[in-house]
Write a structure and sequence with these properties.
Layout (H helix, E strand, L loop, with lengths): L2 H25 L3 H8 L7 H33 L15 H34 L13
Helix pairs in contact: 1-3, 1-4, 3-4
């Protein structure tokens, strides 16, 4: 496999993973979540915050993957078409190589997305105003 083909296939695999992360945010936005987001609330809404934090994490990771895919495409365009990459025999077949790039990319990006979500939610919950209990106060 040539260096140029390997980089082009790696860019395509990473780009596909980026597309998945951009799509996941909208695919997981269920009808219930849409109703929650569309319903006006006077106080902080943790379900809305969780949905938005999840989308943020997936979009950030998708953007990082998209930038990586573009950088790989630039590297592929400037790589030598005749230089060979020494790969194990099992990775000499294009679909095996694509899977070998795609699967670890998705696993690492998924973990990064989850960690970014957890970090974001901790920050959101720290910044959120305390919820007032219904019935508390002078209107009982």
């Amino acid at each position: 496999m040539s260096e140029q083909l390997a980089l082009t296939l790696a860019a395509a695999a990473v780009g596909f993973a980026a597309a998945l992360f951009f799509c996941v945010g909208n695919v997981l936005n269920t009808a219930r979540r849409i109703v929650d987001q569309a319903s006006p609330r006077w106080d902080f809404s943790e379900p809305v915050a969780r949905a938005l934090a999840s989308q943020r994490a997936q979009y950030v990771i998708g953007a990082v993957l998209l930038i990586a895919a573009f950088l790989l495409q630039v590297a592929a365009a400037t790589a030598s078409a005749s230089a060979l990459v020494s790969l194990p025999q099992c990775l000499q077949i294009w679909h095996s190589f694509v899977l070998a790039v795609f699967l670890p990319t998705v696993v690492v990006a998924g973990l990064a997305s989850y960690l970014l979500y957890v970090f974001t939610m901790r920050k959101v919950l720290r910044l959120a105003p305390p919820l007032e209990k219904e019935g508390a106060g002078g209107n009982s």
